[in-house]
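Long-time lurker. I teach an intro course on protein structure, and each term I like to show students one example going from raw sequence to a predicted 3D structure in token notation. This year I'd like something fresh instead of my usual example. Would anyone be willing to generate the tokens for the chain below so I can use it in lecture? Attribution to the forum is fine with me.
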Amino acid sequence: MEINKFEQMEIKDEIKKAIKKMGYEEATPIQAKAIPTVLAGKDFIGIAQTGTGKTCAFGIPVINRIDTFSDDVQALILCPTRELVIQTCEELVSLAHFTEGVKIVPIYGGQQIERQMTALKRKPQIIIGTPGRIMDHMRRKTIKLSTIDMLVLDEADEMLNMGFREDLDVILANSDKERQTVLFSATMSSSILNITKKYQKKDVVKLEIEHKSLTAPNIKQFMIRIQENKKLEVLTRIIDSEEIKLSLIFCNTKRKVDELVENLRFRGYQIDAIHGDMRQSQRDTVMKKFRTSKLNILVATDVAARGIDVEDIEVVFNYDIPADEEYYVHRIGRTGRAGKEGKSISFVTPKEMYKARDIQRYTNAVMEEYEIPSSKDVNDKKYVKLFSDAIKLFEENDLSEETKMINAHLENIEISVIDLASGLVKLALKDSITNLKDLVLKDEDFTRKDRGETRPDRTRLFMTIGKLDELTRNSLKDYIIEQTGIDRSDIHDAEVLDKFSFVTLSKEAAKVVLEKLNNTTYNERKLCIEESTKSADSRPRFNGGSGDRSNFRSNSGSGDRSNFRSNSGSGDRSNFRSNSGSGDRSNFRSNSGSGDKSNFRSSTRTGDRSSFRNKE
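-- Reply from a regular --
Happy to contribute to a lecture. Here you go:
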């Protein structure tokens, strides 16, 4: 019988306590099947889409099995990107919150390797990393895999798509053969099958979760393109005009939650918040009020909102666009329940348009443009409500004293009852009827011009690093900020493609980046930068300086980086020659091989991930 409640699972009480603190109550289908299987020590294959709870499916068994009295590395979790490494690490840290002695270290590209080496000296039992950076540490002998009991491949299909097959082979081949291997993937391709047959035991348990629509069809999804400083006015206008009985508003930070609640309370709304700083008793009190409609607006962070189950939520507002597509799915899933229609409205600033596009691709749904009610619409609704409330008050109360008072005043002034009523209405609504014009940005503010291609105050830079260097939009920004000291607000856009990237910065910040990063190294490879005014589809050409990847010649198929020829110097990845097919990064040869002291033998420069041979 499948167990769906975490409380009923055979896991440590400390982990159950942490799960409760995280707001989880019931296991997802992949968790309900995977956790008992992995706890039993069996190899496991989970085929499920992102957003189904895979991290906890392997994270809970990993934490549960760790021997906190041992200094050996006991579990290795491989992820395709820096972001997923960080996200997974945060989840496992939360799961281990009440378990003393568990040490977890994230390892990924873009961070100083010396800092990681220092962290590894603290003897972590769990390492979470990208294949490329794990390989770097294996060469330096700062990571040894001979002691691991469990190896997890998260989003294995994505790792293969990014060209990590050779790295995975080396890592798997050099880890303990008796280890437990757990694999999660969104698809079951022939390449995935090949890995499972080669590296997993014959009694491996496989579970495939049927891919369903990530968002319910009865949820209408809208977006509003808006400036950050106008969100509050638009939000209140929508709430007033739509006459929403129950709504849930999501912010990305606790600070933003508190600020929004304070502003809306000042405007007279029945509102409260839940976030991670609140005691459980406070959360319970707030949720009871929300369920009984004593509150009609609840503001929450993603973590605090986990476990919220209220059927009558009419609208979910994304006051801030979530950084992760999964969070978006979880957020809007709070409405449209029990067969009822729901609505989600997302506020999108110019810098967040790429997130909105990513979410629409991920959910396979379109966010329609939401038409903000006009000032007349809002005011008309307020007039109607005022008169409705007045009539109700008259029907339910004795207003004879008030009537005498009005008649007495009318005897001394020369105005009609209608004129007096008009003045009273104006007084009653003077603080709530405002003129809200030009709240939404014009279309041109959201076009590609914002990338700096035509703006005189911005510069667009071309950089010879990209997705194949394990970079994402955020990790590229973080790297630039860390290395140059510029402010995040100086980076207006970043576009990361397979082999190169474009970054739009303020003019002064661009000068600093060029000065400090051009002709430097990234992950032991030459990084070149130059100004670009062209679109992402037509990158600028260098004249063949050291580290240049732009002047390639190749006879291989699409996506192959193996058959390049270049006159560039040491550190360049383009001076490879190979007879391999499309997409193959193995079998490279180069004349620069100095500095390699690991058990692996490479014919390329130090830091190359290809063609390893074990001297043993």
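Some talking points for your students: The domain at 6-208 is CATH 3.40.50.300 (Rossmann fold). The first strand starts at residue 44 and ends at 47.
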